[in-house]
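We treat protein structure as text, and this decision shapes the records that our systems exchange. Because each token names a local backbone shape, the row as a whole describes the fold. For reference, a complete record is included directly beneath this paragraph.
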Amino acid sequence: MRPLRIALIGSRGIPARYGGYETLLEELAPRLATAGLEVTVYCRSHMTPRHLNEYRGVRLVVLPTLRTKHLDTPAHTLLSCLHAAERPFDAALVVNSANALFVPLLEGAGIPVALHVDGIEKRRAKWGALGRAVYALSERLASRVATVIVSDAEVIASHYEQRYAVATTNITYGVDVDTDPGTAVLDDLGLESGGFFLYVSRFEKENNPHRVAEAYRDVPGDLPLVMVGSAPYARAFINSFKTNADPRVVFPGALYDEPYRQLQHHALAYIHATDVGGTHPALVEAMGYGNCVVVNDNPENREVVGEAGLYFKAADSGSLARALTKVLDEPATAGRLANAAASRAATRYSWDTITDQYFELFRRLAGS
């Protein structure tokens, strides 16, 4: 029998150089290819190295887009779905609920679709009234057009069930721990192992980088806070908190691959401040690397971390400062929580298990 042919559409592509969806596809696609599927990932031309058409056993289709805040994703997804609809794919995974509008192009061509909806996008602070309205409409449309809806957290699954009376398939993210990633980036940044706090996220308002930077002014001591991230179309916002930040705060930009893993491996504690979303890959990875995780207190983050972390309220800068001070003052507590986080990640967030779940999902879709 020939292998199943699968299309992965809607992200910026792989290698991962942006966010959670790109991380998901970089981890998932090669594993599916190793498991015997023919996997194609649709990539954006401005995010993909020139002439790259294969990556770790995965076929890449690189297409252009309109590089604006509101048109980048829909323009590329439209072209990708038109291209894929003319190919003999057995199933597709489309990521981002905003792409629900284009799912009928694939379904109409006989390609069953799993639509990954991530968090409740209409609540993200970066969107204006029009953006929130588009995402609200996309949510409703998603519940009607896709063969299967995929969520990555029970909180998101409950939202779709209660609001739209539709069941979702819940599949989380995983972590693949590099036990010896090296220390080159620590040397470059002047850091010591176990001697810095780490924050990783896109620098967008709902991820609260501005509040983290401000709260760090009230944390005692001389340990650096390394804030890894960037964001397109958000230069003014980023400058608003980078300018005049506490001198202990280090901004190395967006880091990926080995430098990113080195920071996760050697951090004293990891700060996760997101307001919106489901299961965040960077949080799961921080847990897997045995960090003490200091987490914004909302249902999605509590679902991931459970009792294996310290909680704060992002809107209250004092609560974050107190939590980080506790990490410094109570190393035994921080160590216990770090071990609990690593154990929880190993039990709940295995890429092998997640790959098996997606493999079964695609087999069911192809059979439908």
Summary: The radius of gyration is 20 Å.
